[in-house]
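Memo to structure team: turn this sequence into structure tokens by end of day. - J.P.
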Amino acid sequence: MSLSNDPVADGNLRHRNSLAWRLILPVPLTLAVVVAVIWALLPRIMESTATHDALLSNQQVANQFKIIRGYYSEFVATKVTKDGQYKATHNHKGVDKAIPIPATFMHDLSELLAEKDTTFRLYSRYPFSGRKERKLDDFQNEAVAFLTANPKEVFWRNDVRDGRRVVRTAVADTMGPSCVACHNSDPNSPKQDWKVGDVRGVFEISSVIEPQLAHGAWLSNLIVIGAIGFGVLLGSYIVRGMIHTDHDRLLRTESLLERAEAIARSPKKPVAVPSGPAT
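Reply from structure team:
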């Protein structure tokens, strides 16, 4: 026979204690797995996201440079050189009444952006004589070959430049009517049989993604620290609950033992035996 006057409370204590013991091992293991997964996958996800965003941004910047070059060609170079007082040439620096041809205008812009996180370059297999000393690297040679065969595609790659990770994106630079007229009539042009739609060269936009990667590493560390902190708090709560439950059970056991001892020590009352009828 149980000494407790509250069997329901005893059952609740046993249930809580059993549940706590069942959670004490799976919860830390689960949190450890979650932290490991976050630590392993989140930096890769952030790098993939940064690369994808840089790729899209680079394509937009390349298209914007194309628009600027087209505007300069149609509304600046053409108008300024129309009456013959000014000429458009690739060797315009230091020459009075000379303005850069559209391609040289883009090269000048690329030099101004050379020290920025986003850089721009225009190159081809047919450089003018003043740019023949420029050597193309492996990416640029592959980009020219690929985009010449696939002018509507995008050629890109992750790379490291000056110790920083960059996304290099290349798109085809095709010839328009004004480009064809200019290049085919310029005596300094290395190729004079261009047709509209030919791939003249390549626009390359390179973007540094180190800041995005650093932010991703900071975010992943923050999430991992938060998960560890949550695990510590949850584990502390479980252990505290177990200690509290065991303490309550101990107090109840002591109380029951004291009651049992009190009952055992109390004097027993004599049992009255009823007397029978007189004989």
